[in-house]
Design goal:
Elements (H helix, E strand, L loop, with lengths): L1 H7 L1 H7 L3 H6 L2 E9 L5 E3 L1 H9 L3 H8 L9 E5 L7 E9 L4 E2 L4 E2 H19 L4 E4 L5 H12 L14 E4 L5 H22 L7 H15 L3 E6 L1 H6 L3 H7 L7 E8 L9 E5 L1 E5 L19 H16 L4 E11 L10 E4 L5 E4 L6 H12 L6 E6 L3 H7 L4 E5 L2 H14 L3 E3 L4 H8 L6 E2 L9 H10 L7 E5 L5 E2 L9 E2 L4 H14 L1
Parallel strand pairs: 1-4, 1-7, 7-8, 11-13, 11-16, 12-13, 15-19, 16-20, 17-18
Antiparallel strand pairs: 1-2, 3-4, 5-6, 9-10, 10-13, 14-15, 17-20, 21-22
Helix pairs in contact: 6-7, 7-8, 8-12, 9-12, 11-13, 12-18, 13-17, 15-18, 16-17
Length: 511
Amino acid sequence: MLLLRRIVSGRNFCKRFSTSQSYCSDRKGLVLGVFEKDGDGHHLTEAAAGFDKGVSGKLSEVLNISGPSLKKGKSRLFFGLHKDFPCVAVVGLGKADSGVCGAENWDAGKESIRAAVSTGCRLLQDLEVKHVEVDGCGDAQSAAEGAVLGLFNYDQLKTKKKTQVTPQLHGSADSSGWAKGVVYAEGQNLARLLMEAPANHITPTAFANIIEERISSIGQRVLIHKRSKTWIEEQQMGAFLSVSRGSDEAPLFLELHYNGSPDSAEPPLLLVGKGITFDSGGISLKPSQSMDAMRADMGGAATVCASVVTAAALKLPVNIIGLAPLCENMPSGRATKPGDVVKAKNGKTIQVDNTDAEGRLVLADALCYGHTFNPRAIVNVATLTGAMDVALGSAATGVFTNSDWLWGQLQKASVVTGDRVWRMPLFQHYTRQVTDSQLADLNNVGKYSRSGGACTAAAFLREFVTLPHWAHLDIAGVMSNKDEVPYLRKGMSGRPTRTLVEFAAGLSNSG
């Protein structure tokens, strides 16, 4: 009985034996899933049942005597069940028949798998297990996403780092789904890395260099252009340049071309991301509290560029162009002053009444430039307004669009990824508030200032769009994660990279 108690009580076992960490770290760990039964009890996944058979039913035995049935999101650690896997984390997956939930606008089964697998992987990582095999749980792609996203931790600048774990699929079931999930998650982790890094490490130039390095490692058909300030001036991007004037860091316009379609003449999908690598607010200076988080104000550029990199890694049969106007927004004697008037690439003049409403200025010129490629659709992504965070919080990305078709494609993709979107209004009511300007064609803030701030920002961007299929994604609310998404640690989230990739994949499949 003493041996059985040791096996069941993982935490006590590790406390009792001083060598337990090395006992675990030198060997493999295993994450297995169990589904809830109606009433009480549990139902093993296919992989868990196979493991249980291999250990003569010991897994079922210890599960039955270790407490109540394992509910969704709960986990238990067992030790000594198998010579090859001294540490086994068993995680609760909820109901086996969970699927798309209309009320929640996501696939509840996939989300449960992501959350459960991430929990199991982290438990083993905390025990310094370096080699972890993961049960596919009936959806290997979701399991891979949960594992790779859950294990990510930005500690590059710390002396003491977490144990590096490379999760692998346990068994051979759906290895292609697992590989796809790993690529999806690594794409989001790239965006997280860029967003989390301090602004003195991720300048516009450093951002572009990191993307160039990632693209070169893929070796697929991606062209990268790092456009200098001289080129930006030649393009007459006065709105973009007005934002960059206050910083000693030179602006850079990053342009990515992924040509994945067999038909080279196929119109591309255009993705545009706001790339403010640090936003002080400029002369309209932000409060100092939490200003450090504005290192992630390039979240739009990070998710867009990471999506292009991921599409290339997946070899999606679609053409994609990614644009990222990169600069800092800083106060100085050269900085744009409230009340200044600047001219965008399309000739429209803009009265800048608030220099902290800078994201829409850099996007305006990027959108004008993007039209020259005659894209099939434009999606721009930006941490644009605090008002969006107030409206939706971290539950979903706000989407403003002039296209029902485009909205349908984005919403469909988000149900699969669990990284949700929600449609917001794009009424003329808001347009009138940005076109009523005393000195210029447009004002960069709404007539009534704080009222409907996310909506007036979207209305401003619409003034630089002529295509029938355009969407603006305001990701300010989903920029960071506290504990809302269980398979992401606290920090910058990299959302909605996987939704953008799934959206692009959907376009490639629909032709």
